[in-house]
Amino acid sequence: MGLLSDPNRRQALINLLTRLNAPICFVCYFAGVAWFMGLAFEPFTLRTYMSENAMGSTMVEERFPAGERALATGREFAAHKKKVGGMPVDWLVKTMQARGLEVFTQSFSRTLPFPDENTERYVVKGTNVYGILRAPRAPRTEALVLSAPCTPGDNNNQAVGLLLGLAHYFRNQVYWAKDIIFLVNEHDLIGMQAWLEGYHHTNVTGMDWSPLQGRGGSIQAALSLELSSDVVTSLDIVLEGLNGQLPNLDLANLFYAFCQKIGVLCTIQGKLQRSDWDSASGYNHAVQTMMLMVMKQASGRPWGDHGLFLRYHIEAATVKGVNSFRHYKTDLNAYSPITAGIYRLTRLHQSYFFYLLPSLSHFVSIGYYMPAFGLLAVILLLRALDLWVQLSAQPSRTEDGVSNPGVLSVLTPLVISHLTGAALYMLPVRFQEVAVEHFPVSETEAVVLTAIAVYTAGLALPHNTHRLLSGEGTEMGWRVLKLVALLYLAVLLGCTAVINFSLGFILALTLVPAAAYVTPHVPKALSAFFLVALSPACTLLFSVFFFQELQEMPVSFQDGWLLYLSVIAQGMLDHYLYGSLVFPLVALLVYPCWLLFWNILFWK
Amino acid sequence: MAELKLRARACTRLCVSVPSDTAVLSKTQVNEDFQEELVIRPLHSGDIYASFQFRTVWETDFMKGNKVSHYRLFPKSLGQVISKFSVRELHISFTQGYWRTMQWGQPFIPSPPGAELWVWFQDSVTDVDATWKELTNVLSGIFCASLNFIDSTNTLQPSASFKPLGIGNETDHRFLRYATLPREIVCTENLTPWKKLLPCGSKAGLAVLLKSEKLFHSSFHSQSVHIRPVCQDRQCKSSSWELRQALNVVFDLHTSGQSKREWSLFKMFSRTLTEACPLASSSKIYIDVTDNPQEEQFELSPATPLLSQAVVLGDRRTFSVYDLTQQVTFGTVRSLNLMIRWKSSEGDMLRPLLHAERYVTGYGLQTGEIHTLMYNNHPFRSFPVLLLDSVPWYLRLYIHTLKVISKGKDNNPSYIHYQPSKDRERPHLLEMLLQLPPHSVTEVTVQFERALLKWTEYTPDPNHGFYVGSSVISSLVPSTVAMETNITMEQPLFSSFFPCKEESSYFARVYTEPLLVNLPTPDFSMPYNVICLTCTVVAVGYGSLYNLLTRSFQVEEPNPGLAKRIANVIRRMRGVPPL
Known about the structure:
The structure holds 2 protein chains of 2 kinds. Chain A is of the alpha/beta class. Helices cover 55% and strands 14% of the residues of chain A. A 9-stranded mixed beta sheet of chain A has the order 6-2-3-5-4-7-10-8-9, sandwiched between helices. A 3-stranded antiparallel beta sheet of chain A has the order 1-12-11. In chain A, β8, α8 and β9 form a beta-alpha-beta unit. The radius of gyration of chain A is 27 Å and the shape is globular. Chain B is built from 9 helices and 26 strands. Chain A: InterPro entries: Gaa1. Chain A: It comes from Oryzias sinensis. Chain A: It holds the Pfam family Gaa1. Chain A: The chain crosses the membrane at residues 20-41, 352-385, 405-425, 446-465, 485-518, 525-547, 581-603.
């Protein structure tokens, strides 16, 4: 700090930073991207290990004799489901009671803000059925949850069968120390949300649910099953939850350890880990796996029924049984010890909560991935420093000429862009009826198109702003505005990255170059195109295509566009149904911030 | 003749003082009596409830300075405790598991999960807190339990919920101390000292069945010791000390019964009975056959001609009785192995007249809400309950958010006793007298804030959470049959624990489940890193930044020469500005 308190040396440092500002920014940007790509390179990452000593996998009995019976139960469940045309509540209650559980039901209803066209839902009514296996000599203070969704059609019947089979098996064991709750939830995430809100007696999303009659104390961990075939080739674990929250890494470690022990193939993001990390294709594979995780986490949506548990500080994951065209197949007898083993969980807290997984055996902790973001964020600070120096140097040069820009010239664009953001947040859902009346579109299309319309209308803003301003914008004016916008963006991205690294990083990747580059003195048309291409909406569009590419399901532009529209609708629904924060974050903060830069480009 | 009034009542209105001339004691003869009893109740859910009670009554006086040195049936360790600490009543229970009222109905002697201790001291005790502290440490040694963790932060003085169960005329709650340890684990090491208090130990009588490997292979286990002064006869001319040891256990149908749905003494306890305790004046086994008059639910063998009826918990029950003091009970094989074969399948949930549950709501580590639900399932009668809630200080209750709602309307408690907590000194105490309307759910909610503890105050494994003890609900539940109010009449032990005052209602105590609450917890796994990082960041980063921001920089003038300094001194003396 002696460097900074000495005015001469401080001046020298500042001179260096301002003179070399652009090259340093370039270097930082590429270093950030390179660092990020390096995270998937195996020698740079750490091997996963169990931090919780209590969770050694040696205690598990590997034999689960009731696989056949679970399948039979699954078929019976499917038959009853078909007969009732939905959730066979009575049958489930009876079956769970026969297995010696305390059975309760919960009914719920929810009217969506606008129809969900993917799942064809608008007014949702349903019933959750859950049975509690009371642990002997336990005082009802702790519980674990095993859930399986009751999905329409022929999906997931085996999962329910397995759930009931496990209930039967667990009931005859004596070593449980915690109550185990077996939950079959209708309408997947909506039912799960209703159940969790009922269990914790909260109401964050305005859903109607009937209060729960039976409880088992504080839930320590949860596992959600998804299984649609009688045999499985591999097991896939899904970790990404609401708002990019992740369960404790020990849960993934435990799953991996059990799979290794029992000899079942296990995957993450549907990808096996490979041993040839030193080959190009091996590295490529790891990057793909990690990028899939980043994209999923950035979306902020729950990627399985487990995703909603994380809000309540319950470690949760979804385990999917995958049946692909491999030769080696295992039956449910192998699937179950894993779930049975995971059911010795305690509250996991020892391992990491912030991590990325390039494969199940390696992980990147927060200390390793944060520098990548830091390198991008430092660009904003460097540009801000540059502007600050320019601003503080200017008055001395033109002592009498330029009057200082008023607060108004900075405040007006700030207020107006935020009002546009607020409109983007509020209008689409508020005005869907009006839109449906006047245009030949469905409600969902109306909402999405209104959102796009408001977004585009926001681009017309600079001209309006300038009419409101008292005088002409000054040279000082845009510099002050840009300084404010840069610092605003830095704080915004910094906070986002701490909560949801992936979202923060993807936004930084596109917004930082735009923010660093833009001034009123660059070629207008080209820069406008550049800026629009780097705006949040286009980031989302690119992400949609990129995600499809990563999943090895490339789409044509036409399909991609349709997918893009449905992704917007889904994002909004996630917000209204489950309280995802990505839509309000983008609409209320990121988009207005981007508008400020747009404003600077058209500064006159 | 003074009619004896007992005050096992939860309601303050029922507490009437006892004339003091009843406590006349005679010491002419050593009068001791020991009884043992086992009640087996096949439960509605298909489980089996076994309740042991052992009662020693001794007509002696531990007080008044006389040293009692000759002990026969009464355990010396407890006798010394009574006289040394001037205990009037002592109730201690160790429970592993939660009593499932919805499936099992009411237990004969209720107890909360973990350890519970409540003691009434004689009014001669001057420093109750010090005596209590010493007593808990002594009991901790006697029962091999962590009762020494009872301190001022979990000790309460309930004003109305825990009235003396024996005779006595003192109800000033200054002499009452109540504490629970919900985290206490009960196991063999607690059972062994408990068995040693019995006159026959585990050598003979019913106590041979108490083998820990089976007792701790159950759904519920509870053992308790109750010491109180009782009347000797109906006139209550003299009082004697009663020591009751009770052990309740529920065996699980599924895990032990496997496919065959049958029970026997051997299957439950891995022992059969061959004799009564020779010191016992009475030794009996009762099997509840009320729901089974024609053997439609289960089959009992060997059959017994002896049937007895008793009024217990507001209901008239019929029992098959096996008297172990009679040789004929053991038959030709000289061993008794009772068998119960189930015929019907599992029943549905019960609807007990009174039951309660409690849970924490909300998410995040800042605030939360405690919900206590009390169900009155009586179709047309309302009845009063006393709710006792004790919450540790680190959950700071917002008492202004306290709401009591029955059937959608506010239910105003007719009596509230609230003692706010003091940080690190005493817990919150909330007692309320409520009227539960017929066929209703009454919900008591109160919000709280989670405190941030000092780093040495966290328990081992703090991420597991912190326990909040059970709420206690004491009530007078309407009875379907006339209750027996004469407590001195000869009756089975299981029906005579709570003295009964009115014929129309019976006393019941219900405990809710304890709560497990997470507090904001620092990452203890790397305290060194945390401390170092915090100190470094604060010292280096913030300190120098603060320095830079607050210091005003100016170019330093070179040091003036000596001549100039002298000139300046002279100029200052002259009152002229310096050079």
